[in-house]
Design a protein that fits this description.
Number of strands: 36
Strand content: 25-35%
Structural class: alpha+beta
Helix content: 25-40%
Strand order of the largest sheet: 11-36-35-34
Number of helices: 12
Oligomer: single chain
Length: about 675
């Protein structure tokens, strides 16, 4: 069992590239660990990595940014921080193997290289090698290792193997010193060359006690957090059971409410059917009475006919005269025979049922069985759930060597919006680097895409109509109108007096546009109706690169270089400004949008966060961070289904407001 456990540990400490124990392990952004030399060798096999100046993970292909990409690619892996935990596990494992007397570990290293198996009797800490008696003598006589102090492995002596770290700049010198002023580990040459003016240069060994004490405190703190997290996980697991029980109860409640409504509708049906039976019975009785009356009259007519026929065939003239006199006097005059009861009652002519379709449909549409109330906590309880990531590289027939898909350059998505075209949700983005507008959509669960090339790089875009968007092309001083079918078709182009970066439609006859240090109100022909630059004699904008119109018609302006958000009326009058200082200070605010309740969402490119404000500009909280998967975000949009799409370089990442902890009331 112990051997199996040790093998699993060694498997965990084995590099998947070289299949050997980690050597100088480093961990990439995706938390996969490799030997530093293996990462360097892997980069050489990936030209796309050199071009994108990132390190792709050999396992999951996720890219890790290089802190200093201008340096040669051979040095990129050296910029990745070492994995101290993995190295510590390796040291612990090797120490455990030594303590348990692992024969393979205690064999002479030099003999092993020659294919021989010889028990080691000495250990060289400098070379980190186990030596047999013969090799130890040779080692002591060698000019390169004659000064190395050997440790005897015989008896109960246990030797602790230590990792020897060599200086990155002075390859042949070992790191043994620590500069407390600069908080850097040094070799002897580094001390002399770079840190001779520093006051606190000490040996690492002299600081071991302090370092151990500090790490012990850190570990104790982590253990407390671990205990707290474990307790919280158990509570959450019990909460899952409570949620399931509550779900069953709510489901039963909904079913009972529906049954009561169905029972009421059945009662209405029974009442209509009873009324129909009553009216139909009355109608049938009236028709039967009419039939009886007609039969009586038919009998009378038959008797009169027989009387007259007898008179006509009689040989007696007086019989004929009597019949004639009876007719003339009215004795045999035909008259209607009416039933008194039937005559006093209105006769039913027809029975029909006219359904109140419109009213019933309206009632059904407005019918509410009830509502499911959800109570949210005031603080953010969980990280956002990333539902989808879209690579915005187009797959054309012609591909440029070294670039995936048909794009000439790495996509740089500037702005984004989502349209519902013929019941197909379509994502429209502007690609600054490739000078085009792109659309992405699904038909029959198959991903589709479209591309509209432009003369210059597009920036902001805004929805004009249900199937139309307007795109700002500042390099050409143009605003183009594009129809989304969901493929993209160029409809028209207007030329403006300025090069605008951002757009937002105010009304069917006007729109807002931002560029340089001003925001203009334009008509649909591109003429400036009003220009907004200052408030109280102070300049309002430095670079209004993104804007959005909220439900009240106010213009929300995200000032990229001005590090602020400004709210204007549709006429351009100042409302409020959000420009915090201190820890909440904005770095590079970019894309902006609003929720159904009017709360404001915007991204900060530099801090790689998404921030929520109230409609009045008051701070609510941070809802997305780099840990949630957004890196260098530039724009966002929120559709009617509360899905939030964020552009991150060449990717479009999708989240939901609920998964970000934002409820229907706009609280976090």
């Amino acid at each position: 069992m112990a051997t199996s456990r040790a093998e699993k540990v060694m498997e965990f400490l084995t590099c998947v590239i070289c299949q050997e124990l980690y050597t100088d392990p480093c961990t990439l952004r995706c938390d996969h660990t490799f030997c530093r030399k293996c990462v360097t060798a892997y980069i050489q096999t990936r030209p796309d990595a050199v071009q994108s100046k990132t390190i792709p993970c050999p396992c999951c292909r996720q890219h890790t940014k290089v802190p200093h990409p201008s340096r040669p690619a051979e040095e990129w892996a050296g910029q990745i921080k070492p994995s101290i935990i993995i190295q510590g596990l390796i040291n612990t494992q090797e120490s455990a193997r030594r303590t348990t007397g692992d024969d393979s570990y205690n064999n002479c290293c030099l003999c092993d290289k020659l294919g021989e198996t010889t028990r080691g009797t000495a250990w060289c800490p400098e070379c980190e090698e186990t030596l047999c008696g013969k090799c130890a003598k040779i080692h002591s006589k060698s000019s390169a290792s004659c000064n190395h102090e050997l440790c005897n492995l015989s008896g109960e002596v246990k030797v602790k193997k230590t990792r020897k770290v060599m200086c990155k700049e002075h390859k042949d010198e070992q790191v043994k010193y620590l500069c407390l002023d600069c908080n850097k580990s040094l070799c002897q040459s580094c001390c002399v060359v770079y840190h001779r003016k520093c006051d606190s240069v000490v040996t690492i060994s002299s600081q071991i006690s302090r370092i151990k004490l500090g790490l012990s405190r850190k570990v104790n703190g982590l253990k407390k957090r671990l205990l707290g997290k474990s307790t919280k996980i158990e509570k959450q697991k019990s909460k899952v059971s409570e949620i399931k029980d509550n779900k069953a109860s709510v489901k039963e409640h909904i079913t009972c409410s529906t049954r009561r409504l169905v029972k009421h509708i059945k009662q209405k049906e029974r009442k209509l059917l009873d009324e129909l039976d009553e009216i139909t019975d009355t109608h049938i009785s009236q028709v039967r009475a009419a039939i009886k009356l007609e039969e009586i009259e038919t009998q009378m007519y038959r008797q009169h006919c027989e009387f007259i026929d007898k008179a006509l065939v009689s040989d007696c003239e007086m019989d004929l005269y009597d019949a004639y006199q009876a007719w003339e006097s009215g004795a045999v005059e035909l008259g209607d025979v009416r039933d008194t009861d039937t005559a006093d009652t209105r006769r039913i002519d027809d029975i029909r049922f006219t359904p109140d379709t419109d009213n019933v449909q309206h009632i059904l549409d407005d019918l509410r069985l009830g509502k499911i109330d959800v109570t949210y906590r005031d603080e953010l309880q969980c990280s956002p759930v990333l539902f989808h990531t879209l690579d915005a590289t187009l797959e054309d027939d012609e591909e440029i060597p070294g670039m995936p898909g048909g794009d000439l350059k790495e996509p740089d998505l500037y702005d984004i919006t989502v349209l519902l075209v013929n019941k197909t949700q379509t994502c429209v983005v502007t690609d600054y680097n490739n000078k085009c507008v792109k659309s992405f959509y699904n038909i029959n669960n198959q991903p589709c895409q479209s591309k509209l090339p432009l003369d210059n790089s597009p920036r902001g875009l805004t929805q004009l109509k249900e199937k139309q968007v307007m795109v700002a092309v500042p390099g050409s001083r143009q605003i183009v109108t594009v129809e989304v079918t969901p493929d993209l078709v160029l409809l028209s182009t207007i030329t403006t007096c300025k090069g605008y970066y951002s757009l937002a439609v105010l009304s069917p006859s006007s729109l807002a546009a931002g560029a340089a240090s001003y925001v203009d109100i334009l008509d649909m022909a591109g003429h400036v109706l009003r220009s907004v630059t200052t408030h109280n004699n102070e300049r309002l904008f430095a670079s209004p690169c993104y804007m959005f119109v909220n439900t009240k018609g106010n213009i929300l302006v995200s000032d990229f270089w001005g590090k602020s958000l400004t709210c204007l009326t549709s006429e351009g009058d100042f409302v409020w400004r959000y420009a915090p200082t201190g820890d909440r200070a904005l770095r590079k605010p970019a894309g902006i949008s609003t929720t159904k309740t009017g709360d404001i969402m915007f991204v900060d490119t530099d801090t790689e966060t998404m921030i929520q404000l109230k409609e009045t500009g008051e701070y609510v909280g941070v809802v997305l961070t780099p840990q949630d998967g957004i890196n260098r975000p530039s724009s966002l949009c929120i559709d009617k289904h509360d899905s939030v799409r964020v552009t991150c370089g060449r990717e479009i990442k999708t989240f939901t407001l609920h998964s970000m902890g934002v409820n229907i009331d706009g609280r976090v």
